[in-house]
Design a protein that fits this description.
single chain; alpha+beta; OB fold (Dihydrolipoamide Acetyltransferase, E2P); Dihydrolipoamide Transferase; Chloramphenicol Acetyltransferase; 3 domains; seven-stranded mixed beta sheet; four-stranded antiparallel beta sheet; 9 helices; 27% helix; 24% strand
Length: 407
C-alpha cells in the first residue's frame, strides 16, 4: 500500500498556521490528482489545497482545526484502483439531423463546486450544490449564483393558521438566547494586529478639513469624457491617492517604516486601500501610485475590490504597501481615528462629505466639506511633519488643477 501524506504547504513568510475551513471531498472517496480536496483560511486569503496524487483519501484533520505549516491534513492511498466508469449505451443509428444539438460541456471537478465566497453564502442559507446551477468556468458555482439561489429559496417556515376573531394571542416571552461561535482566522488576525499596532507604536492622530468644491466641479464637468475615454468613472479615491503619493515623495519619512534600529525609506509609493468584505477588512496595495494615471488607479482599485469581495485575492496581491487610505465616509462616518497598518507609519482616514457653512473671503457660504484624519507613528514622524503632510494634501485636493499639472 502506497500512502501519500497531504501536509499544509508553505504559503508565505509570515504565515505559520492555517484553518481548515471546509472539506471539498468526502473521506473514503477516490480523488484525482490536482483535484481540490479542501480550503484553507490563512491570515490573508482563502486557498484551495489540490491533491498531490490520485487514490482513496482519508481525512486526518477536521473542519475548523488550526493546523501549523507542515501539519498533516489527509492521507491518500495511491494503490487503490480508480472506480470503473459506467459506459453509456450505444445509440441506435439514425439519420443525421440537419441541425445537430451542440454537445454539452465536459464535466470537471470544478463542476458544481462553489468558490470560497459562494460556499460561505451557501452555508449561511443552508443551500447545497444540487440546488444551484453554476455559471462560472467549467460549471463552477460563483458567489452571484449562490446569492441568486438564496433569494429564490422557498421559506421552510410552516404557515401559521389565522387566529379566530376575539381570541387573545398568548404573550410571547422576549428572547434570552445566546450562542458561541469560533472567530474566523481573518477576524482573529485583524484583532491581533490592531492590538499590536496600538501597543507597539507611539500612535497619534491629527485632524483637518478639506473643501471639495473645486474637485466636485471638475469631476462633474469632465466625468462623461473621462468615462468615454477610459471606460471607468473618476472617483474620489484616485484623487486622494494621487495627492498623497505626490506629498509622500516629497516627505519620505511619512512613507518610511521602522525595522528594529533602522529606518527603511521607499523611492516609490504603494498605497494600501482598505476594502470592507463579509469576512473582515483587507488592505491590498496599489503599486507605484506616484507613476500611475488616475484611470489606472481607479481600475486597480476596482479590480482589487472585486477580488476581495469574491474571496479570490492572492497572497501576492496582499503583500506590501507603504501607506494606507481608509474611507469610513462610505458608511456615514463623520470622524474617526484610524489605526496604523503595521509596519507602515501613517494612515489617512477619509470621512463623509457634509455641506456646512464656512467663512469664504469674509462671507458665509455652504460648501461640501470632509474631515480628514492622519494617524502616524510618532517614533518616526514628528508632529510638525504630520501636520505639514496633511496641509499639503489638502492644498492639492482643494486646487486639483495643480495636481493634474504636477505643480
Amino acid at each position: 500500500m502506497a500512502i501519500v501524506e497531504m501536509k499544509v504547504p508553505t504559503i508565505g513568510e509570515s504565515v505559520t498556521e492555517v484553518t481548515l475551513s471546509q472539506w471539498l471531498v468526502e473521506s473514503g472517496t477516490y480523488i484525482k490528482i490536482d483535484e481540490p480536496i479542501c480550503e484553507f483560511e490563512s491570515d490573508k486569503a482563502t486557498l484551495e489545497f489540490p491533491a498531490e496524487a490520485a487514490g482513496i483519501i482519508t481525512h486526518v484533520a477536521a473542519e475548523g482545526d488550526d493546523i501549523e505549516i507542515g501539519g498533516l491534513v489527509a492521507t491518500i492511498d495511491t494503490s487503490a484502483a480508480a472506480p470503473a466508469e459506467t459506459a453509456a449505451p450505444a445509440a441506435e443509428k439514425t439519420e443525421a439531423a440537419p441541425n445537430p444539438a451542440p454537445e454539452a460541456p465536459t464535466a470537471t471537478h470544478a463542476t458544481g463546486h462553489p468558490s470560497p465566497a459562494a460556499a460561505k453564502v451557501m452555508r449561511e442559507n443552508d443551500l447545497t450544490s444540487a440546488q444551484i446551477t453554476g455559471t462560472g468556468k467549467d460549471g463552477r458555482i460563483t458567489k452571484q449564483d449562490a446569492v441568486a439561489a438564496s433569494q429564490t429559496k422557498p421559506s421552510s417556515a410552516p404557515v401559521k393558521p389565522a387566529e379566530p376573531m376575539n381570541v387573545v394571542a398568548p404573550i410571547q416571552a422576549f428572547s434570552r438566547n445566546s450562542r458561541r461561535e469560533k472567530m474566523s482566522r481573518m477576524r482573529r488576525t485583524i484583532a491581533s494586529r490592531l492590538v499590536e499596532a496600538k501597543n507597539n507604536t507611539a500612535m497619534l492622530t491629527t485632524f483637518n478639513e478639506v473643501d471639495l468644491t473645486n474637485f466636485m466641479a471638475l469631476r462633474k464637468k469632465y466625468q462623461e469624457r473621462f468615462v468615454e475615454k477610459y471606460g471607468i468613472k473618476l472617483g474620489f479615491m484616485s484623487l486622494f491617492a494621487k495627492a498623497c503619493a505626490k506629498v509622500l515623495m516629497e516627505m519620505p519619512q511619512v512613507n518610511a517604516q521602522i525595522d528594529e534600529k533602522e529606518v527603511i525609506y521607499h523611492d516609490y509609493v504603494d498605497i494600501s486601500i482598505a476594502i470592507s468584505t463579509d469576512t473582515g477588512l483587507v488592505v491590498p496595495p496599489v503599486h507605484n501610485v506616484e507613476s500611475l494615471h488616475f484611470s489606472d488607479i481607479e481600475k486597480q482599485i476596482k479590480h482589487l475590490a472585486t477580488k476581495a469581495r469574491e474571496g479570490t485575492l492572492t497572497l501576492d496581491e496582499m503583500k506590501g504597501g507603504t501607506f494606507t487610505i481608509t474611507n469610513g465616509g462610505i458608511f456615514g462616518s463623520m470622524m474617526s481615528t484610524p489605526i496604523l497598518n503595521r509596519p507602515q507609519s501613517a494612515i489617512l482616514g477619509m470621512h463623509t462629505i457634509k455641506k456646512r457653512p464656512i467663512a469664504v473671503d469674509g462671507e458665509v457660504q455652504i460648501r461640501p466639506m470632509m474631515y480628514l484624519a492622519l494617524s502616524y507613528d510618532h517614533r518616526i514622524i514628528d508632529g510638525s511633519s504630520s501636520v505639514t503632510f496633511l496641509v499639503k494634501v489638502i492644498q492639492l485636493l482643494e486646487d486639483p488643477t495643480t495636481l493634474l499639472l504636477d505643480l
